[in-house]
Design a protein that fits this description.
about 475 residues; alpha/beta; Rossmann fold; about 45% helix; globular; binds pyridoxal-5'-phosphate
Length: about 475
């Protein structure tokens, strides 16, 4: 049965429950399954007729021991995690008529209108389930570039075993996203707006990594995290590739392409799992904006961090794509020594030159592009003003623009699924700019939950990044005391 090991190889294998509750492995590595399960074409045929939740159940069953979660428990956690999605398909697929063989996979139909809801509902439910079973509670802390925070806050609201702390860089996320975190009337959700962080979410992650590295503090504050390094999220993110594949192909076995707006490589690592399990994927397009760490690594073998450039697709303004370590681990043939060396070098110098074998391996089934803000905005305008009249959010637009850029790479009858990771209503100012509208926005750029949040109080703690560790520790200690 599946066990989880650290990419750095420094801890004994753990079960699913431990991997999920710990987040990071104790040696600073990321948890990965010892082996990735394979699925036969016969089984794919059977899966092709399942609903999203039933399909997710089949996939997750391959990664979770029944002694940890019984089939009934798993099914219950999944149904609960997805019932608040507003579309019966959970992640519906929409064909674009004006772009032949191009489909939009809508990952934004959950309660906070982004792709983060897809995995967060299930993960937070599961954490809550494990904690209750142990008669325990935890402080879930997440840093966000705008969408993880709202998803974590909504999934945690009202859960007795969880205190949820969401940290966001003020001025680097939209007002709509901030309000999704600050307007919840839930005493266990704590929003923290942080100023003075030029590298945005990456700066916040650094502060958190330092807190997590302190064992005493971690124990005292019961720190845990549901950020994108948590195995529980990455695993669920394989399901939408399978589900959408079955919606668009003429027959199981046909090879298709996915274009994925990428930041921390969590969504694409879900894709890696799906392809390795046996999903017939010709290639993944790693679609970056101008923060192109992944594009550089894939195209040159040089994994380097550069200064963050604020863009119109802010959720992927990420210069340290954390889940890439998981991919490098498998691409290097499971070489713990190399991962340790590279992680340490990257931390010290912000750059790693991969050996040529690994550099070739990471290109197997992956191509990439870096998209400018001008391309993003014109893609939004073009698709909206076409016969389709479909409104892309800025992140989906990065995916579509990358697919356009790389279209010549594939035979013209190859189907391309572009992942739409957010609802346009989360980014009204960008939509306004793209469509050059002054007054009322198109209906597709509105959502009732966003409008409702405008009429509510905001509850937020404010802080400068240089003081964040102290202030957060103090506030968390006080909450811990009040729970004792
Ligand atoms: C998080 C996010 C992404 C990027 O996903 P990764 O797993 O970090 O690559 C893309 N688009 C939106 C809207 C997001 O919130």
């Amino acid at each position: 049965m599946t066990h989880y090991i650290s990419t750095r190889g420094g801890v004994a294998p753990v079960d699913f429950e431990t991997a999920v509750l710990q987040g990071f492995a104790a040696d600073g590595g990321l948890f990965v399954p010892e082996t990735i399960p394979r699925v036969s074409e016969e089984r794919l045929q059977k899966w092709s007729k399942l609903s999203f939740v039933d399909l997710a159940f089949e996939i997750l069953s391959l990664y979770i021991e029944q002694t940890i979660l019984s089939p009934d428990e798993l099914r219950h956690l999944l149904s609960d995690g997805f019932y608040r999605f507003e579309h019966p398909d959970v992640t519906p697929v929409v064909p674009l008529e004006t772009k032949p063989n191009t489909y939009i996979l809508e990952l934004f139909r959950g309660p906070t209108l982004s792709f983060k809801d897809v995995a967060m509902g299930f993960l937070v439910n599961t954490v809550d389930f494990f904690l209750k079973r142990k008669n325990d509670w935890a402080s879930l802390v997440v840093a966000t570039t705008g969408d993880t925070g709202p998803a974590a806050a909504h999934a945690s609201a009202g859960k007795k075993s969880i205190e949820c702390w969401v940290l966001y860089p003020i001025d680097m996320i939209s007002e709509e996203q901030a309000r999704q975190m600050t307007t919840l009337e839930a005493s266990n959700v704590h929003a923290v707006g942080v100023s003075g962080c030029p590298d945005g979410g990456d700066d916040l992650d650094l502060v958190l990594a330092r807190m997590f590295a302190d064992d005493n503090l971690t124990r005292q504050l019961k720190l845990s995290s549901v950020n994108s390094i948590n195995w529980g999220r990455v695993m669920v993110q394989a399901a939408h590739y399978f589900y959408s594949y079955f919606r668009v192909v003429d027959r199981v076995g046909e090879k298709i392409v996915f274009s994925v707006p990428s930041g921390a490589f969590g969504n694409l690592f879900g894709g890696y799992l799906a392809r390795t399990m046996g999903l017939p994927v010709k290639a993944y397009i790693c679609a970056n904006n101008q923060n192109a760490t992944l594009h550089r690594a894939l195209s040159t073998g040089h994994f380097t961090k550069e200064d963050l450039i604020p863009t119109v697709s802010s959720a992927i303004d990420i210069v340290v794509p954390y889940n890439f370590w998981r991919y490098l681990y498998f691409a290097s043939g499971g070489d713990h020594g190399k991962i340790c060396q590279w992680m340490d070098d990257f931390k010290k110098q912000g750059s790693v030159q991969l050996d040529s074998q690994t550099a070739d391996a990471i290109r197997d089934g992956y191509i990439s592009a870096s998209i400018t803000d001008e391309q993003t905005l014109s893609t939004i305008a073009d698709v909206y003003q076409s016969r389709d009249g479909y409104l892309l959010d800025p992140h989906a637009a990065v995916a579509v623009a990358a697919a356009d850029t790389l279209a010549n790479t594939f035979a013209s009858d190859t189907k391309i699924v572009c992942l739409a990771t957010a609802h346009a209503a989360k980014f009204p100012d960008i939509v306004r700019k793209a469509l050059a509208v002054k007054g009322e926005l198109p209906e597709q750029a509105m959502h009732k939950s966003i409008d409702r949040a405008k009429e509510l109080f905001q509850h937020v703690r404010l802080c400068d990044c240089s003081k964040l560790a102290q202030a957060l520790t103090h506030a968390m200690q006080s909450v811990t005391k009040s729970r004792a």
